């Protein structure tokens, strides 16, 4: 991968915005989006936490709020410095305060591409094989700030069904489960007829694909993919960005960027742990990759 460590130092030039920077830090805070067990989230990111702490020489802490909004508000309020976010969550931060954070890196799939999909799925014994089989049934979303667990399917599914996502308009009921893991469990247990989650769409279905929430659920022993069936797939979604708070000192931004940017080569096991499955590493990214997601969130809120 081409290394552009200076990207963290060039944020002002790229965005045309001047950011007031902290002169020093006494700790560094990593925010982890919701969607799976909090302890599992913290365990998966411990390798990143320890690497950053060693490099910066200050205590580095992981925060795992119950929902996506906890990380969004932490970045906006300055209590979280770094997060690997879904594009919709990043868009929420950007819409609230364009100067708060910048995307610096994006996960790279094992084939060198970036991006992922929202995957609609149901239990195979339900007989549901498409969205058409869900009319009048209960459908599960994850979190309102999730890209694949809400924003994209709420736009694309009505284009297929010709109806809104409101209760009773096409689906009998639409439920928010609280996150991707919760949606997977709810479908697997029959609490909802179908739901949406995220995956790279590469590799084998029985493995939960190469990375994503399905792969995490398989690896954790929560589901057997042979009990589930894919019933819908979105268009390709821009890859999940790693975002850094702009007010951090330049040297901190450069150090943290370098750690993650080179993780695919230096610590591939850690790269896969924080990415949620098989990836080749991380590559530089800028806000331009997410303008369509920002526009979608703005349109959805109107």
Keyphrases for this structure?
302 residues; alpha/beta; D-Maltodextrin-Binding Protein, domain 2; 2 domains; six-stranded mixed β-sheet; 36% helix; globular; disordered N terminus; Phosphnate-bd; PhnD; Phosphonate transport system substrate-binding protein
Question: What secondary-structure arrangement, pairings included, does this model have?
Answer:
Layout: H1 11-15, E1 28-32, H2 38-44, H3 46-56, E2 60-63, H4 68-77, E3 82-84, H5 87-96, E4 101-109, E5 117-123, E6 138-141, H6 147-161, E7 173-176, H7 180-189, E8 194-199, H8 213-219, E9 228-233, E10 241-245, H9 250-261, H10 263-266, H11 268-275, E11 279-284, H12 291-301
Parallel strand pairs: 1-2, 1-3, 6-7, 6-8
Antiparallel strand pairs: 3-10, 4-10, 4-11, 5-8, 5-9
Helix pairs in contact: 3-9, 4-5, 5-12, 6-12
Describe the protein:
This protein folds into two domains: 5-112 and 239-301, Periplasmic binding protein-like II (D-Maltodextrin-Binding Protein, domain 2, 3-Layer(aba) Sandwich), CATH 3.40.190.10; 117-233, D-Maltodextrin-Binding Protein, domain 2 (3-Layer(aba) Sandwich), CATH 3.40.190.10. With 302 residues, the chain is α/β, with parallel strands linked by helices. The protein is globular, with a radius of gyration of 19 Å. Strands 2-1-3-10-4-11 form a six-stranded mixed β-sheet, sandwiched between helices. Strands 7-6-8-5-9 form a five-stranded mixed β-sheet. The longest helix has 15 residues, at 147-161. It contains twelve helices and eleven strands. Residues 1-18 have low confidence and may be disordered. It has helices spanning 11-15, 38-44, 46-56, 68-77, 87-96, 147-161, 180-189, 213-219, 250-261, 263-266, 268-275, 291-301, and strands at residues 28-32, 60-63, 82-84, 101-109, 117-123, 138-141, 173-176, 194-199, 228-233, 241-245, 279-284.
């Amino acid at each position: 991968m081409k290394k552009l460590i200076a990207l963290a130092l060039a944020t002002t030039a790229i965005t045309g915005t001047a950011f007031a920077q902290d002169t020093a830090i006494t700790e560094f805070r990593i925010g982890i989006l919701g969607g799976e067990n909090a302890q599992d989230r913290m365990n998966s990111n411990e390798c990143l936490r320890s690497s950053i702490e060693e490099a910066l020489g200050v205590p580095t802490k992981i925060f795992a709020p119950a929902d996506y909004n906890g990380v969004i508000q932490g970045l906006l309020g300055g209590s979280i410095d770094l997060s690997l976010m879904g594009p919709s969550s990043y868009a929420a931060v950007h819409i609230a305060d364009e100067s708060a954070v910048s995307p610096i890196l994006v996960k790279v799939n094992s084939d060198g591409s970036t991006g992922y999909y929202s995957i609609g799925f149901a239990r195979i014994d339900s007989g549901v094989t498409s969205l058409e089989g869900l009319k009048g049934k209960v459908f599960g979303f994850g979190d309102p700030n999730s890209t694949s667990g809400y924003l994209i399917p709420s736009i694309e599914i009505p284009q297929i069904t010709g109806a809104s996502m409101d209760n009773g308009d096409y689906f009998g009921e639409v439920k928010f489960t609280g996150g991707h893991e919760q949606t997977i469990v709810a479908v697997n247990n029959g609490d909802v007829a179908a739901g949406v989650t995220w995956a790279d769409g590469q590799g084998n279905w029985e493995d939960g694909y190469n990375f994503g929430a399905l792969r995490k659920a398989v690896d954790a022993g929560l589901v057997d993919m042979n009990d589930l069936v894919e019933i819908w797939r979105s268009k390709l979604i821009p890859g999940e960005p790693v975002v850094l708070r702009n007010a951090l000192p330049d040297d901190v931004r450069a150090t943290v960027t370098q750690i993650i940017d080179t993780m695919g080569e230096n610590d591939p096991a850690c790269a896969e742990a924080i990415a949620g499955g098989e990836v080749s590493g991380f590559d530089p990214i800028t806000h331009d990759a997410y303008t369509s997601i920002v526009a979608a969130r703005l349109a959805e809120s109107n």
